């Protein structure tokens, strides 16, 4: 295996502001790849497609101590962050590279034990193409493990959280599935050539309840709205008409976060496909 630099192209519409990266960086192997961990063996090679800031990626390293881990992401800035958060001394079997996962992956046929995705196929207009590449690079018996969002629940909902959730659903790249991806990833895998009889099709959830986690989550979303994402929704994507709509979403999120009943759940499709 010889990872080379790839061209960088992304259909990711969320940007990489501090608030966005903070929400990605809260992800770990424990909260985002628990369904895969029992299947890892120390000599395995793991490739994390669309790895973001690499907090999940580096978490694979101790599980494959005699193997290696590669994180690939289209955003140079986020790959720099990932590298900065994982010293070579602490993670000698880890590499990050910039690349477009919708292009041919810089990996030989039948060379990888595990390909992993988290919240990435959600943003990609042609996920089947990415899954076909995963199938190509996996060794016979290797695994593709995908964790992709299906449904977002804010309880107790208010007009602001409802508007925010509906706008998030529309804010993906044209053609990308976005919300509803979790229930489809096993179907995409079949279209790409994986066999249904060699799949584990499950679902998991991310939960941020009151009081502390709901406030933390609400603050991250409000920062996103008041920064890069709010601007993008308003000026570029034009899926929000005016600043007042953004302010109303932010107020709703804050009120939700402060509610003693606050409970946020993201339902995730969690699927493993064996080659
Ligand atoms: C929602 S983040 C998920 C990051 C990480 N996997 C996680 O779960 O925290 C999606 C990431 O996919 C990357 N991405 C989107 N399209 C991509 C593409 N075509 N090639 C490589 N990376 C891509 C984005 O840059 C972003 O960092």
TrEMBL record:
This is Methyltransferase domain-containing protein. It comes from the Eukaryota. Keywords: Transferase. PANTHER family: PUTATIVE (AFU_ORTHOLOGUE AFUA_2G14390)-RELATED, TRANS-ACONITATE 2-METHYLTRANSFERASE-RELATED. Coiled coil: none annotated. Residues 41-152 form the Methyltransferase domain. InterPro entries: Methyltranfer_dom, SAM-dependent_MTases_sf. Pfam families: Methyltransf_31. The keyword Chloroplast does not apply.
């Amino acid at each position: 295996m010889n990872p080379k630099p790839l061209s960088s192209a992304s259909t990711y519409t969320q940007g990489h502001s501090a608030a966005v990266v903070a929400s990605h960086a809260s992800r770990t192997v424990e909260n985002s790849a628990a369904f895969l961990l029992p299947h890892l063996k120390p000599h395995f090679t793991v490739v994390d497609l669309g790895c973001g800031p690499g907090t999940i990626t580096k978490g694979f390293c101790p599980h494959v101590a005699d193997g290696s881990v590669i994180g690939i992401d289209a955003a140079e800035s986020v790959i720099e962050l990932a590298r900065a958060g994982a010293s070579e001394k602490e993670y000698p079997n880890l590499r990050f590279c910039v690349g477009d996962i919708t292009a041919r992956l810089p990996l030989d046929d039948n060379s990888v034990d595990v390909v992993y995705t988290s919240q990435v196929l959600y943003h990609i207009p042609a996920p089947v193409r990415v899954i076909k590449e995963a199938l190509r690079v996996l060794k016979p018996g290797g695994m593709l493990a995908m964790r992709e969002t299906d449904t977002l629940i804010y309880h107790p909902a208010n007009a602001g959280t409802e508007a925010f959730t509906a706008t998030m659903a529309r804010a993906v790249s044209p053609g990308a599935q976005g919300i509803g991806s979790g229930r489809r990833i096993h179907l995409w895998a079949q279209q790409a050539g994986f066999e249904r009889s060699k799949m584990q099709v499950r679902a998991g959830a991310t939960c941020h309840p009151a009081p502390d986690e709901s406030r933390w989550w609400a603050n991250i979303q409000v920062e996103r709205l008041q920064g890069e994402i709010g601007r993008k929704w308003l000026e570029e994507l034009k899926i929000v008409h005016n600043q007042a709509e953004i302010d109303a979403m932010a107020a709703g999120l804050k009120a939700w976060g402060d509610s003693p009943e606050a409970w946020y759940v993201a339902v995730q499709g969690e699927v493993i496909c064996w080659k």
